[in-house]
Amino acid sequence: MRRVVTFLLVAVAGVGLAGCGSDDRGAGTGPSADATARSSLTGDITVLAAASLTESFTTLAQQFEAAHPGVRVTLSFGGSSALATQITSGAPADVFASASVKNMDTVVAAGDAKDPKTFAENVMEIAVPPSNPGGVTGLDSLASAGVKTALCQPQVPCGSTAAKVFTNAGLTVTPVTLEPDVRSVLGKVTLGEVDAGVVYVTDVRAAGGKVTGIEIPTDVNASTSYPIAALSKSANAPLAAAFVDYVLSADGAKVLTAAGFRQP
Amino acid sequence: MTAPAPGREDRPEARRDRGRGSATTLTARDRARRAAGGDTTRSAPAPLLVPALLAVAFLLVPLLGLLLRAPWSDAWPILHGSRAGEALRLSLWTSTLATAIALVVGVPLAWVLARSSVPGLRLLRALVTLPLVLPPVVGGVALLMAFGRTGILGRYLDAWFGITLPFTSAAVVMAETFVAMPFLVVTVEGALRAADRGYEDAAATLGARRMTVFRRVTLPMVAPSLAAGAVLCWARALGEFGATITFAGSFPGRTQTMPIAVYYALETDPDAAILLGLVLLLVSVAVLVTLRERWVRGGVTS
Question: Which site among A177, A186, A210 would you substitute to test the B interface, given the most B Cβ atoms closer than 10 Å to its Cβ?
Fold first, then answer.
């Protein structure tokens, strides 16, 4: 009886330790360990994702949770630069999905993530309030002094990508505010506090009828790549890896494409 | 467990006291009192002293971190390159203007709250001091809903005068005034309540008009509290973040105040964030010193 209990304890400990990557200890337990390994996708992970991924990652997390009962995915959205700072300062998180390679590189350089994979691409669009109070017709309008434009901070991907667009178009745009992430820009447009904001095409789609999108011509538009990686300090590495795989899978691509993201 | 613990903790405390005693010369009476175990004035009991020391450490270690992690050797080029000057300038003049506005309208409000007998005064007091406890971001959203381009007042400002307040330096001043004025109002109101009304009554019986009484008797009487309240209000305005970033946004030189600059610098250049933080720390220390030297002591003696 005591032996059975010990075996069970070892098996349970093995499942728990699998998260620490030390499953070789349970080598002697044979096929039963494999069977538990498949259902060992339990527990919680925290995913830090770029603000532009709000809707698509919420959907992805729900689907992932539905596919793996007992799994809970906690999402936190923000500007990629702010999230990268959080991670390199030791924030407890398991997965990072950035809206630019640059912010992911910061995390990789700090030794907090390895081998990021690009899962989506995005391009910019002008968002204006439905009434279009600034009479914005295109990129040129944003350079005129009478048009109040909101942009992202230059260190945030939506800010640096918008800057590329203006460089491509040879325009100098002086915004009224530099927001911490793309959703803050969208919010200022939705509230009607600014005449225009430069956001991602996916944000215009996510806002539904609350903003009107004005397309940026392809020849001057700029794109940004979205890399994702499991974080080295994850307390649940198998689950983190499984979530990354799910985002990169065909199912993940379907959700992202529906939100307006392009596949890399 | 319970019995030996205080005894054991007594010893380091005694040692610490001896250290302090050597600096201030330990008198024979002190020693005698300590031997008798009747020392109540100089040493705190361990159950109070230990948490107190923890609190001190908790409050001071972060500041120490700021000092120790500061890149002193490159301080000047980093500060110079981070456009700290314009953020500091903006912060200083907006918080000073916010304090001035708070003085002009807040002091009369404090008088009304302390001296008048308008019905519903208690409710009014609760309402106007609400920003004191309201999360500043909520204040920012509220300001946006009131004075934003589509706000309940802001839409008329825009339609009739073509004035839009958000994203301007004026919005920074408004956000700071909204958050900081209650500090002044509460401080001055308290002083007005505590002040002896006999002097005011005497002045009135001698024929002084009510405004004269307020100017020549009431105000000088509460001057120390007025100044303390103003400094408190100014410091709160200087540190304002949430309401400002929500209502005024962030643009260097126009709406990006020091706290916002510190926040963003942490994402791009942590060294600059530390140095900008130290500049604010320096200003705060200066505020405390001013408060202490000029007003706290002055208030006691006058």
Answer: A177
